[in-house]
């Protein structure tokens, strides 16, 4: 049995949790068979409102009592879970969304998600059954609000948090989790590698409304004092069970880093940049044996099937530089991930596939094409990718460029990159910048993919902007606080909130104001609407064509006539 799964009562002071709704909005719930599906309602000054997808959990509910010591309510415990399914081919007993979807069942989680995404329940069930979508929802994380990762749904964003041996505390990591979900992170990964890994995760799990992912090999390595050669299958397995009991919803497993692939990375510019990948490469080489993650993969499937933990098959050989993108090592591993996808699914375990990394724009599409081809369209979950290596301190931007492109091509979840990438551990501010940046990339892709509800928000914001409803423009923004702050830097007075200009152009040069004036003038004088113009053009065309018919429908006049006319004109 895992030790210490109930750490409450210890002294981890959580000081800086931001409570209450994002400005200009309020929490609202839609009842679905007794389940409360959350939305963030933005009420506009023109009487309209928009209900937005809401990842923030009870923290933004003004009426919720938050007690981080006690954790969030264990809401999903009250939902009726179907009986586990015994899978014929492998004999695995699977209590998973995949097994249930294949059996034709719509689980409470699926019904919740359908309402949340605004799609039919059958679409949710069928995409999960096909393995094209996953619902990471460990039975032992009943505090989580179900969400789905798949290309038929809104593109999702993951935020990485966690301490390192160099910096951070439990309190700071809980604060980052609440902060990341407030700004729209759909899942959280606790990538802690420093002290109190188990306890840090327990605090995050009990307080996270979003699914939580981990990389168990990190904690396993910590247990052997950072010496990869001392890792064993047994130690790793026990760590997986320990984390499974705590409620981890998805686990990164770098089982595609095979012994024979390690030399393929030798001549790269940046070698192996994945932590999990480098740890497994070190183990394989030291023992000259095949990776225990690969050789014990079916045992791992049996464990994950019991809790309904989703595999996130790790890209241990992803490129860490533009020069290494789409190379032999990367794609050799991807092929193996495809093989493992089939095995996991035959045990009823849900699977997604992790992707790169650093990839120039012209090499991005190839990644999605091969992933879909080799991995049966399992949801793709990519780290950016960074479209160039030359901008440390701005890698949230270099990577959001790649992220938008790869999401448009079919990636289901984007793993954020913060401004601190390659430089240090992100703090709370970096977490917000990373999340907002990735919400932009994800939403841009939703628009391009024609996601049914995506453009509503753009249209509402643009309308507010054109009508100089400044409060509405701020409140519809991904980051209302910063939008308002930037506006108010130059025009803080309340009357400026309805003014027909901002400090960019000033009152006389505001093009949207001038354009609105033109429109008003035209309307007042019954002039030139587009309909008027169209009608006038049509009438003139008719007249011309009547004239042409009257002249005998001749395209060319006889030469004599033309010559005479030309002479007359001189
Ligand atoms: C795989 C990705 O995970 C990120 N990463 C690794 N550890 C942490 C952490 N503790 N906090 C935030 N991000 C982390 C790296 O920046 C890399 O981009
Ligand atoms: C998309 C993605 N890829 C990889 C990892 C794990 O990190 P690492 O491979 O460095 O151990 C991650 N957290 N997210
Ligand atoms: S981010 Fe820092 S610690 Fe991590 S691989 Fe790069 S240099 Fe090493
Ligand atoms: Zn990098």
TrEMBL record:
UniProt function note: Catalyzes the synthesis of the hydroxymethylpyrimidine phosphate (HMP-P) moiety of thiamine from aminoimidazole ribotide (AIR) in a radical S-adenosyl-L-methionine (SAM)-dependent reaction.
EC number from the UniProt entry: 4.1.99.17
Record protein name field: Phosphomethylpyrimidine synthase
Residues in ThiC-associated domain copies: 22-80
GO MF term list: phosphomethylpyrimidine synthase activity
Similarity comment text for this entry: Belongs to the ThiC family.
InterPro entries named among the record's database cross-references: ThiC, ThiC-associated_dom, ThiC/Bza_core_dom, ThiC/BzaA/B
Reaction(s) the record says it catalyses: 5-amino-1-(5-phospho-beta-D-ribosyl)imidazole + S-adenosyl-L-methionine = 4-amino-2-methyl-5-(phosphooxymethyl)pyrimidine + CO + 5'-deoxyadenosine + formate + L-methionine + 3 H(+)
Keywords linked to the UniProt accession: 4Fe-4S, Iron, Iron-sulfur, Lyase, Metal-binding, S-adenosyl-L-methionine, Thiamine biosynthesis, Zinc
Binding site for Zn(2+): 358, 422
Residue sites binding [4Fe-4S] cluster per the record: 502, 505, 510
Residues annotated as binding substrate: 160, 189, 218, 254, 274-276, 315-318, 354, 381
Database matches in Pfam families: ThiC-associated, ThiC_Rad_SAM
CC cofactor: [4Fe-4S] cluster
Free-text cofactor note: Binds 1 [4Fe-4S] cluster per subunit. The cluster is coordinated with 3 cysteines and an exchangeable S-adenosyl-L-methionine.
Pathway entry: Cofactor biosynthesis; thiamine diphosphate biosynthesis
């Amino acid at each position: 049995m895992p030790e210490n799964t109930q750490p409450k009562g210890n002294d981890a002071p959580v000081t800086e949790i931001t409570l209450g709704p994002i400005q200009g909005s309020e929490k609202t719930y839609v009842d679905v068979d007794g389940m409360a599906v959350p939305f963030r309602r933005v009420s506009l000054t023109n009487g309209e409102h928009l209900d937005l997808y809401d990842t923030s959990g009870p923290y933004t509910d003004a009426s919720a009592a938050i007690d981080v010591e006690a954790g969030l309510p264990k809401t999903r415990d009250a939902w009726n879970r179907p009986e586990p399914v015994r899978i014929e081919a492998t004999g695995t007993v699977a209590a998973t969304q995949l097994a249930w979807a294949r059996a034709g069942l719509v689980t409470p989680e699926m019904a919740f998600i359908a309402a949340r995404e605004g799609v039919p329940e059958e679409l949710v069930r069928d995409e999960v059954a096909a393995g094209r979508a996953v619902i990471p929802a460990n039975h032992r994380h009943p505090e989580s609000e179900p969400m789905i990762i798949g290309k038929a749904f809104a593109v999702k964003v993951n935020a990485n948090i966690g301490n390192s041996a160099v910096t951070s505390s439990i309190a700071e990591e809980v604060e980052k989790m609440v902060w990341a979900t407030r700004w729209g992170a759909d899942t959280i990964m606790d990538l802690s590698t420093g002290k109190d890994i188990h306890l840090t995760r327990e605090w995050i799990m009990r307080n996270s409304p979003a699914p939580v992912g981990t990389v168990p090999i990190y904690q396993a390595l910590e247990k052997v004092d950072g010496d990869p050669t001392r890792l064993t299958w047994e130690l790793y397995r026990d760590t997986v069970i320990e984390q499974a009991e705590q409620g981890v919803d998805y686990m990164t497993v770098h089982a595609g880093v095979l012994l024979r692939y390690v030399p393929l990375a030798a001549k790269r510019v940046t070698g192996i940049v994945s932590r999990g990948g480098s740890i497994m490469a070190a183990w394989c080489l030291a023992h000259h044996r095949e990776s225990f993650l690969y050789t014990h993969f079916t045992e791992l499937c049996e464990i994950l099937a019991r809790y309904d933990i989703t595999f996130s098959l790790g890209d241990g050989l992803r490129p860490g530089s533009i020069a290494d993108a789409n190379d032999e090592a990367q794609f050799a591993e991807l092929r193996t991930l495809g093989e493992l996808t089939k095995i996991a699914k035959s045990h009823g375990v849900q699977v997604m596939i992790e992707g790169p990394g650093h990839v120039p724009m012209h090499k991005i599409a190839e990644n999605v094409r091969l992933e879909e081809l080799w991995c049966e369209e399992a949801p793709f979950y990519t780290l950016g990718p960074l479209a160039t290596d030359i901008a440390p301190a701005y890698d949230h931007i270099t990577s959001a460029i790649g992220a938008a492109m790869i999401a448009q091509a079919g990636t289901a979840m984007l793993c954020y990159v913060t401004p601190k990438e390659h430089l240090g551990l992100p703090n709370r501010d970096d977490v917000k910048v990373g999340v907002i940046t990735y919400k932009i990339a994800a939403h841009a892709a939703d628009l391009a993919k024609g996601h049914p509800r995506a453009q509503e928000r753009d249209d509402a914001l643009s309308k507010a902007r054109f009508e100089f409803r400044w409060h509405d423009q701020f409140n519809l923004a991904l980051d209302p606080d910063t939008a308002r702050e930037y506006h108010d830097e130059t025009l803080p007075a309340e009357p400026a909130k309805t003014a027909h200009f901002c400090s960019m152009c000033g009152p006389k040069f505001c093009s949207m104001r001038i354009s609105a004036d033109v429109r008003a003038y035209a309307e007042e004088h019954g002039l030139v609407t587009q309909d008027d113009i169209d009608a006038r053009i049509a009438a003139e065309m008719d007249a011309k064509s009547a004239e042409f018919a009257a002249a005998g429908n001749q395209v060319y006049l006889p030469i004599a006539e033309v010559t005479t006319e030309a002479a007359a004109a001189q």
